[in-house]
């Protein structure tokens, strides 16, 4: 049976709800549709904000043939079959949901077809494309950021259903949706299937029983990664391996885990062992190129290494302190001796004059010249 979210999906841009910064009058995606501008792009934003809906509207408005694949299950053969198809003058549009789940080799395969225009790619992702999409492919796509829907927008979508919802029911669904229209619609649909009638009480009971929240976005996701990080921080390799195994077994994105390890290497190990960052980056690279299940070995290697390293947060703490100072004082005047002097005129005006590279004097602005951000070890 077709889900409610699919049943009420609009086919025209005029009926699209939300993302006014992109589809409002004079905005880029509105202009692209109005002018039938065919190009590849990536939609980046939280679940249930209209990424899939807009992709289908775009294809429909441009009279294109759209094919949907998921980055979770798609392979090169699936893409190759689409490449072979010929629709004459009709654009061939590949909608890749969860594009961040494609490995590097799969993205490399797509690149020449996107570059030649043989395929118009629309990617959808909840993860930062800068981390997840290879640079050559990213450079050939524009990235548009979708925002969570506000409660007014969620209610507008709910009004399109056949359910005669009262104000209380709409308000409650909008408030628990966290900007995710699909979540609100799923709770509504589950409630009707369970109870045959939609009331506020039934909605609340349905949410408790249906367990519709995907754990990768819920408390279990954050609790487990927190336990993993804290275990490495405390040098508990056994606990780090256990929480790593739990995440991998649960289907967590291995690049998410590896990325947190890269952050950890600088944040918690820092100057105690600077090469930890090199190891963490190589783990991330291995995860990208190897993929699961074998990449679990690389993650385990990195987790134990980072756990066993001595810890030193002085660089990170110093950076946080410097950020607060920069925010407090704004653009303080930079001393002339450390300014760039690329021209004779600037040299005559004193730029760079008196600079001694190994001087022990402070090069900070005068107002904060005695500040210490990077503390000595006690």
Number of domains: 4
Low-pLDDT stretches are 210-218
Q: Kindly, what is the distance between the CA atoms of the first and last residues, rounded to a whole number of angstroms?
A: 66 Å
The largest β sheet comes out as:
5 strands, parallel
Do you know the CATH topology of the largest domain? Rossmann fold
Mass-distribution shape = globular
CATH superfamily annotation of the largest domain: P-loop containing nucleotide triphosphate hydrolases
**Got a strand count?**
5
Task: Quote the beta fraction.
Answer: 5-15%
Mind telling me the C-alpha Rg?
A: 26 Å
Q: Quick check: average pLDDT?
A: 87
- Side by side, the strands of the main sheet go 2-3-4-1-5
Which tags fit this structure?
Zinc Finger, Delta Prime, domain 3, alpha/beta, 19 helices, 378 residues, five-stranded parallel β-sheet, 4 domains, Rossmann fold, Helicase, Ruva Protein, domain 3
Task: Characterize this entry briefly.
The chain has a 5-stranded parallel sheet with strand order 2-3-4-1-5, sandwiched between helices. The protein has helices spanning 4-7, 20-23, 28-34, 51-61, 76-84, 104-116, 129-132, 135-138, 151-158, 167-176, 181-195, 200-210, 219-233, 237-249, 254-269, 275-290, 295-308, 314-329, 344-348; strands at 41-44, 65-70, 92-97, 120-125, 142-145.
């Amino acid at each position: 049976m077709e889900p409610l979210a699919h049943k009420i999906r609009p086919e025209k841009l005029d009926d699209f709800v939300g993302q006014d910064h992109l589809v409002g009058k004079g905005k880029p995606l509105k202009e692209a549709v109005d002018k039938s501008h065919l190009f590849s792009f990536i939609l980046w934003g939280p679940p249930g904000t209209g990424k899939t809906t807009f992709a289908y509207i775009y294809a429909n408005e441009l009279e294109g043939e759209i094919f949907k694949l998921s980055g979770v299950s798609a392979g090169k053969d699936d893409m190759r079959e689409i490449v072979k198809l010929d629709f004459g003058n009709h654009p061939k549009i590949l909608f890749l949901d969860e594009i961040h789940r494609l490995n590097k080799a799969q993205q490399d395969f797509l690149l020449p077809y996107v570059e030649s225009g043989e395929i118009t790619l629309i990617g959808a992702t909840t993860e930062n494309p800068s981390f997840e999409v290879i640079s050559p492919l990213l450079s050939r796509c524009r990235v548009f950021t979708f925002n969570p829907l506000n409660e007014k927008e969620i209610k507008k979508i709910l009004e399109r259903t056949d359910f005669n919802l009262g104000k209380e029911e709409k308000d409650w669904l909008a408030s628990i949706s966290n900007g995710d229209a699909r979540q609100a619609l799923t709770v509504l649909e589950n409630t009707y299937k369970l109870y045959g009638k939609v009331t506020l009480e039934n909605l609340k009971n349905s949410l408790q029983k249906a367990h519709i929240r995907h754990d990768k976005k819920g408390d279990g996701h954050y609790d487990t990664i927190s336990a993993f990080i804290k275990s490495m921080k405390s040098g508990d390799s056994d606990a780090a391996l256990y929480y790593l195994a739990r995440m991998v077994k649960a289907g967590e994105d291995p690049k998410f885990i590896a990325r947190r390890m890269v952050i950890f290497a600088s944040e918690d190990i820092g100057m105690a062992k600077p090469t930890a960052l090199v190891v963490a980056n190589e783990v991330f690279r291995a995860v990208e190129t190897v993929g699961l299940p074998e990449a679990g070995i690389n993650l385990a290697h990195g987790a134990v290494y980072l756990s066993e390293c001595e810890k030193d947060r002085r660089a990170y703490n110093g950076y946080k302190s410097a950020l607060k100072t920069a925010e407090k004082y704004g653009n303080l005047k930079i001393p002339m001796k450390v300014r760039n002097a690329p021209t004779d005129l600037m040299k005559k005006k004193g730029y760079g004059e008196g600079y001694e590279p190994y001087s022990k004097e402070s090069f900070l602005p005068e107002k904060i010249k005695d500040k210490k951000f990077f503390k000595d070890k006690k």
